[in-house]
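Hi R.,

Quick one: here's the Outer membrane starch-binding protein sequence you asked about.
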Amino acid sequence: MKNKILDKSLFYAWTLLTLLITGCSEEFVEVQPTSSVTSDAVFSSFTNTNIFLNELYSDIPANDEWFSYDPRANWSDDSQATFGWVTSNNGIARRDYSTSNAPVGNGTWASHYASIRKANLLIKGVENAVEGIYNQEEKDELIGQAKFLRAFFYLRLAKYFGGVPLIDKVLDRSSDEDLTYPRSSYEETIDFIVKDCREAADVLPTVWTGDGSTRASKGAALAQMADAQLFSERWGACVTTCEEIFTLGYDLVDNYVSIFRPETEDNQEVIFDVEFNESFAHDSEVFNSPRVDPVTGVAAGWGHLLPTQELVDAYEFKDGTQGDDLGHAADPYVGRDERFYATILYNGSDWRGGKIWTYFDPTVQQGTFSNSFDDNHTHQGTLTGYYFAKHLNPNVVPSETTFYGQSVGTTNAIIYRFGEILLMYAEAKNELSGPDGTVYDAVNRLRTRGGILPLSGLSQAEMRERIRNERRVELAFEGDKRYWDIIRWRIAGQVFNRSKGGMRILEQPDGSLEYNRVDAFRGEMRFVEPRDYLFPIPQAAIEVNPKLEQNPGW
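And here's the predicted structure, written out as tokens:
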């Protein structure tokens, strides 16, 4: 059984924990007096310390970034939301924010440093605990997980801001110590993250008792280390790390869609995930479901993950042609990569006992709920001609009326899985030395599962583009992976300075369908190079800590 976020029967220990982590400072990093009876109580037993650790795990923002009304996938060119008031359709799309109101701003900065403080507090508390409270294995497990999580939040900060202040101890406001730290360089920040992950991997178990994919394991620490190495273009180190992961027993499952179904999601492919269940559920079934239930005709969801035509075109046909091949223009959804059918609902898709119809219907009037293509948000239908399917449970029939304000989604958020490790390895090895047999093998294993033809005979540059496309289709809607791929590949200027696309389908008098690629309503994007590759350091943080230097262009 998976570890719950909180064992509510341990209320007393939780109360002590609450006392320990509240009373936060307004300073640029969280500080806490080190001499505290509550601290002694939290670190007085392995059980109490695990409650504190669970609180740190719960800081991982999977609910907001995967399953909310504006998932991070909408920050990329893969999808957009139905409604115009969300962040992805405003600040992110327009890039018109400042150092005081950026979408990733002081709230992110403060919350991530608060999580880092918790990790530092746990490491210190366990290291300094009275002899006999923990055995060596328990110490290793607790400290290893804390270092993994500290690295998790530092890696996010590095992606958002570049180099950041590196705090590896519990700051004490009652001391004479200077609590304002300058920014470390980007390379130093990545070094710190890699060191934490390495030290975590060296002490964490390969497999936890029971299903432990919600606990950081050796594989999770190595996967995160490979992520940091890939993002910082440390190709050789990333290859070595992936090769170490290959020895740990992970493997692909045969059926791609089974990775994302509650009844089969705990499998040999998953390395680290965030669990959702009936008692800790998310809202994706309402926020991201099609606008109308195809069987009952009632309002079912908000459609806040609308796949774009660009993403659809990334899925190849099984005959070897590309997704935008004109030879398939008359019937574009037949014979595609199996990952397409697991991820996207298109015109004529079978869904929850009915059919999803997204063609433009001129009879649909304002105020009428419909799944049909919506030119200008008249009836809140799809703006791209598609709906999202990947993490939705087809056995759940949501209703906006019944479930709005209630959480019923139980699909897990998979942070790292073996399929991504194959892609990390392939990309790093190709950049390091070109497409040898191991690169082809890694990529073709995923393509074979998708039912499409294997690759062969490519140059390094050609393989680079195919690997990038494989990442797009294999990892679509898995958090913010596509967004960060665009950023680290330095292609945001060409990808984001245009409109997201859709498919407007018209039914002809003879019943045939005419497919027209169009710009999606509200699909315009903007990106200023090189400024927008990093978010600005929050002005509020700089005002408190003048040692912080702002990012270029801000």
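Residues 1-37 have pLDDT under 50 and may be disordered.

Cheers,
M.
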